[in-house]
Amino acid sequence: MESLRGLSSSPASAYDELVTGQKSIRYHWQGILSVIRALPGGLGERVESARRQLDESGATVNLLDDRAAARWTFDPLPLVIAPDEWSRIESGLIQRARLLDKVLADIYGPQQLLKEHLLPPMLVHANRHFLRPAQVTDGAEPQRHLCHYAVDLVRLSDGRWHVLADHTELPAGAGYALEMRRVLARSLPEAFRSIPVRHLRPFFDRWHESLRSVAPANVSQPNMALLTPGSLSATYFEHVYLSRVLGIPLVEGGDMVARDGQVSIKTLAGLRPVHVLLRRLDSSFADPLEMRADSALGVTGLVEATRSGRIALANALGSGVVETPAMMPFLERVSERLLGEPLELPSLDVWWLGEPSALSFALANLDLMIVRPCLGQDREPIIVGMLEPAERQALVDRIRAQPGQFVAQYPMTPSLTPKWDGQSLVPSAVVLRAYVVADHDTYHVLPGGLAREPDGDTALRSLARLHGTLKDVWVLAEDAADVQLPPMRRFHQLAVERSSADLQSRVADNLFWLGRYIERLDNDARLLRTTAARVAQGAVGPRDAVELRLLGRLLDQANLMDHTSALAPPESALFQQGLAAVAADDRGLATVLDGIQRLTATMRDRFSIDMTTAAGPEMIEVRKRLLAARGNLDPLLAALDEIVRFVATLSGLAQENMTRGTGWRFLDLGRRLERGLHILNAALAPFSISPIDWDASMRLALELCDSTITYRTRYLGQLQPAPVLDLVILDDANPRGLVFQLRAIKGHLDYLARASGVTVAAPPDSLEADLESVVRQFGGDEQAWRHEGLALALLRDVTSDAEQHLDKLSEAITRAYFSHVPAAQAVGSSGGD
Amino acid sequence: MHYLLSHRTTYTYASTVDSAHHIAHLRARDFPGQKVTSISIVTSPLPALATQHVDHFGNLIDIYRIDKPHTRFDIEVRAEVEVRFPEPPVAASTPPWEEIRAALHGDGFPRRVDVSEFIHESPLVPSVEALRAYGAVSLTPGRPILEAARELTSRIKADFEYHPGATDISTPLGDVFAGKAGVCQDFAHVQIAALRAHGLAAGYVSGYIRTIHSREEIALRGADASHAWVAVWCGEDAGWVHLDPTNDLIAQEDHVAVAWGRDFSDVSPLRGVILGGDSHSYGVAVTLVPTG
């Protein structure tokens, strides 16, 4: 590490964003500094509030990605950029975007640049991002290759901004920039009142326009969507966020099919054509037919559909080919050739070692340089000065064997900008990521972006990743009038729609199961609570013993406790140990909690922030407490109470915040179906014992259906089977009763049939009549029902009948509405003999 | 030589396939020395959509989409092809291989962009150190390119056992080399890797080989199935010369080419994505009849 210190240029030579050479504060920073100085409680508490908001929105971490590295933190100090400075950057970025778009058109077209020796052919032919199936030989040429673009910029000691990296394949982070601005505007409102900071929002409206503009020419109302690899993607938060900001649905490859050159989204009502895809899926995964055959994330036939010109991808397939830093040394000449203009923004000095002169230069200065593989998958920088002699020799051998696979560059000295270290402002290196979208014949630049402090000792580390410390970028307007919001997004007449059947089949499927899982969690928690409360009382009397034996059977059946301990005597240590281990990973409760977490995370785009917070961070907390309770009944009971309350919160949010469209219908359908099954399997199960012991059965049935209080109010606590069964089965006003569920299910199925045109039959009306006549059997005096074997058998028959109906219904719903397409598989012949 | 070709591929599925996409590199194209006078492709079931394209390498691809449920897929090519690959140059008079390499590298800017594409690693032909060493035995300093490449072809034929089933398309090249056994595509990949490791340009050619030699009636390996061999760049004068390491031959008039690319993955005869079907088996029948 010692040697490295000599390597990295001393910060003394770095450009200071804040302070001039004469040690005075630059004019454009004075506004923010005076706002901070005037804050009554100091900056610290504002920072806390902003960080909390970002954590809650899920922006700082991918919920399904627990790698700590995926996290980033937020610095409240923006990078402030003066208007004249910005207009130079802006103009340079527009030029570079125009240039790269033309370079892409050439690479995927005639390849004149290679033939004219302006670009080394190896940068294309050996580049993993060069996708030969995207080469236009006879099909439709994309209207535009580069629809959006991100650039990393650094300001070097000479005070000029230089391009550090181009991101053309999956330019990420614009959504984070907008979210960060939203949060900062809430936590530091005084700054935005007094400083003319340019707005970000209009950029996203233009982005929407830009997507429309690449739609196939004959489509006047293009359907657009954002193609995501799914919730496991590290930038899934941004996909969800962008799809909301741009007002286009989020789709995964599995949501779509290509037929006859047309790509369509599978919805409840059938196939809905899609014309433009904002592509956030790596090109090589886009189509298992023509790209990587092992891709399960793409759409079979997508490449062919783009060739036929019926769908446009933004960016076009294979746009990542110009990302390689090896292009940089050649762009100046390419710009002269394609645009007839010199480059306005210089690139960082990079040597592509495929040229013998560059190779000998780099080998002569190797110890001072950073070497990067530039064409394959791995593009990690190697700091030569840090290598052991043997490693260094191995690197030299690799370079000599394939020099064209490497670039070399010197460590750079990014400019310094103030950062909040928790106590005060300290200088820190900064890299600016800027965003560009196509706008008719030219490009438009986001007046802002993401600034970040690069990780590690050298700023070349982790260039492409949005890790570390991120901050907002404030581009100042010449005068406050410029900050007025420009006119709204251009008006396109929309057909008025209510509760559409456009819901994607996959989303309907997820909502249905989320409904079932939430309900199952509620039932499981109540069952456990009922049990734990009895055990916690200590002395187990004969009455409790009967109940606990019944509960043990139910716990076994629901896989909440392991078989042996669930059936052990309730007062035994074995039973109590089993109860204490309910939160263990292999038990039912963990499965249900996992399911809810997974489904809410994958459907973040469908839910409000409140709902995802309830299901995300809050649930993780509950789960921790459940695990911590291990072996101790009081905290276990408290955690179970919390789960029941948590389910109530979630239900309340769903009930009050979701429109009663198809989505909510599926969620509620799942809940009703699951609750119906719970009543049949759990609440009525205790009646299978001898009627002599039915006092216990009745108490449990009421408790598991949360109907004890209603019963007590109505019947003053005297337990008899007819009124108990009436309340838990027949009473259509009891939301915990069976008939209530059956009627709700029927209502949902009717609605869905009308909305989608696809009908699924509800359980027959005769079921309700059967239930009624059985419950009537228990109406006689006590002697009668306590000894009535026939009524008992009838009850057993009708409940098992009802259970079968509900099981079949779940299957029928799956068949009718969900994407039950079998997984695609690749087939192929061998090469021959 | 004039040929009548028929090549039929059949997939049989264990259960119903609901829909399928197939991409075929089956439509033989013209090459220097080869002219396709007529060609037709028929599938059963008939496709809902069939399109044709020219790919990056100038090959003809056909894409089919089948919508109706089926348990069997047949695709048959019938073609008439006239073949006479150019007389190979006298091996000893071809340029030294180092000269070819230098021209292909061109200090980063080779003159022949179309040829230099074939000097790089490709999906099924990564660089394998053992293969570099294997190639070095023939690529001795100053040796004429074709002499060296031709010897390499003979060595592969001698050193490797022709053994269908010893490998499949997923067997890594290093394992193929270590096992010293395989089929035509393995031999072609071995030779391509050995040449590219020394900076030379080599391509993979898919096609067929004539079954019966008119008089001696010697059945050549690779008959009654697709075949594959190697095209090696021998400089501006000689151009691409086609070498068949499976049979230790220079392709003349016994070989009919269909398509070429960097390796098998660029020219896979038939590739598809199906929905349903469970497991599948396939059969191939090729007849190549000389008609004069």
UniProtKB/TrEMBL annotation, chain A:
<feature type="domain" description="DUF403">
    <location>
        <begin position="503"/>
        <end position="818"/>
    </location>
</feature>
<dbReference type="Pfam" id="PF04168">
    <property type="entry name" value="Alpha-E"/>
</dbReference>
<dbReference type="InterPro" id="IPR051680">
    <property type="entry name" value="ATP-dep_Glu-Cys_Ligase-2"/>
</dbReference>
<dbReference type="Pfam" id="PF14403">
    <property type="entry name" value="CP_ATPgrasp_2"/>
</dbReference>
<protein>
    <submittedName>
        <fullName>Circularly permuted type 2 ATP-grasp protein</fullName>
    </submittedName>
</protein>
<dbReference type="InterPro" id="IPR007296">
    <property type="entry name" value="DUF403"/>
</dbReference>
<dbReference type="InterPro" id="IPR025841">
    <property type="entry name" value="CP_ATPgrasp_2"/>
</dbReference>
<feature type="domain" description="Circularly permuted ATP-grasp type 2">
    <location>
        <begin position="78"/>
        <end position="452"/>
    </location>
</feature>
Automatic annotation (TrEMBL), chain B:
<dbReference type="Pfam" id="PF08379">
    <property type="entry name" value="Bact_transglu_N"/>
</dbReference>
<feature type="domain" description="Transglutaminase-like">
    <location>
        <begin position="176"/>
        <end position="247"/>
    </location>
</feature>
<dbReference type="Pfam" id="PF01841">
    <property type="entry name" value="Transglut_core"/>
</dbReference>
<dbReference type="InterPro" id="IPR002931">
    <property type="entry name" value="Transglutaminase-like"/>
</dbReference>
<dbReference type="InterPro" id="IPR038765">
    <property type="entry name" value="Papain-like_cys_pep_sf"/>
</dbReference>
<dbReference type="InterPro" id="IPR013589">
    <property type="entry name" value="Bac_transglu_N"/>
</dbReference>
<protein>
    <submittedName>
        <fullName>Transglutaminase family protein</fullName>
    </submittedName>
</protein>
